[in-house]
Amino acid sequence: MADAARVLIVDDEDLVVEAIRAALRDEGYEFSRAADGLQALALVAERVPDLIILDVLIPGITGYEVCSILKNDPIGRFIPIMLVTGLSSTDEMVHGFDRGADDFIGKPFNAHELRARVRSLLRFKNLTDRLEHVSAVIETLANAVEARDRYTVGHARRVATLSAELARACGASDTELDDIRSAGILHDVGKIGTPEAVLNKPGALTAAERRQIEAHPVLGGRICRPLRTSANFRSIIRHHHERLDGSGYPDGLKGDEIHMAARTVALCDIFDALTTDRPYRKGLPQEVGLQIIRDEVKRGYWDRELFEVFVDLVGDGWHYEGTEFGMETEPAMPMQGAIVPPVPVAAP
Ligand SMILES: [Fe+2]
Known about the structure:
The protein is of the alpha/beta class. The chain has helices at residues 14-24, 37-46, 63-71, 90-98, 111-148, 155-169, 174-186, 196-199, 207-214, 216-224, 234-238, 260-275, 286-298, 304-314, and strands at residues 6-10, 30-34, 51-55, 81-85, 103-106. 49% of the residues lie in helices and 7% in strands. Strand 4, helix 4 and strand 5 (103-106) form a beta-alpha-beta unit.
C-alpha cells in the first residue's frame, strides 16, 4: 500500500490550520505545519511534501514569494501548491497563478470543496512522480553507457549541459531545452551495443570496428523508443553524427535536413570529445579544440552561425559550475537538487 500523502499547511492562524486538518481528517494524510514562509521552505528542504496548502498572508515573505521560490526549484516545482486567501479578486488569483500556484481556495472555505481540490491536486502529484521516474530511467541508461566506457564518464552530462546552454543562447523554448538536455544525456546510449574492446581500443579501428561504432546512433534511437517522452528527442540522438556536407552518419543527411537541435548536440559532442581524454590521445586545450572545429566549419561539416554563438559561449574558457572542465564529477541526479531556503531578509 502506498504511503500516506504528506500535506504541509503553511499558516500562522491556529484556527485556520485546525479547520483544514478537520476537513481532511478522514483522508489519511500525514500533516506538517509551518507558521511562516521561511519555516515552510526549511521543512520542504528537510522532507518534500506531496502538497502544500499555503496562506497568502503569512508573516515575513508572502505566500506568493514562497510559491515563486518553490516553483523555480528543481524539486519544488513538482509540488502542487494550493493558495489560501481571503482575497477573492481576479487580480489576486492571476497574481498567484503567475507565480506558479496550482489552485486557489478562498477563506472561509467549504470542507467538501477543499477535500475535492486536495484529492485532485494529489492525483496530479502522482502523475508528476511518474514523470520523475522517466528521468530516473534516462539517468540509469546514461550511467550504463558510462560504466562500460571509462573515457566518457561525465561526457553525457557535460554534452547535455553545454548543448542546453548553446540552445538557450540561440533562443530555444523551455520544451526544446528539455528535449536537448535529454538527447544530450542519451546521445551515446546506443554504445551499450558496442563491444567494450572496440569502445576502449587505444589504436586505430578496423573498418568492421568502425561500422560497429557507427551503429550507435540508430541503436540509441531504438533503445529510447519505448519511452513515450522520447518522441521529440530520438531524432536528435539518431542524427548527432550527421554533418552539413552529407559526410556524417547514419543517414548522410545534408544542410537543412539536419535539425538545429541535432546540430547543437553534435557541436557540443565534438567539442567535449576533443577537449577531454580519449583512449587514443589526451584531451586537447579548449582553444585548440575550437580551432579544429573552426577548420571543420570551413570544410562544411558544421553550422557556421551556430559555431559563432558557440564561440561566444565558450571562447573565454568553458567550465562547469563547481568543477574544472573535463574533470570527472559525481553524476548529478536531476531531481535531487537542493532547495535552499533564502537568506532571511533583514528585520524592518
Ligand atoms: Fe555519438
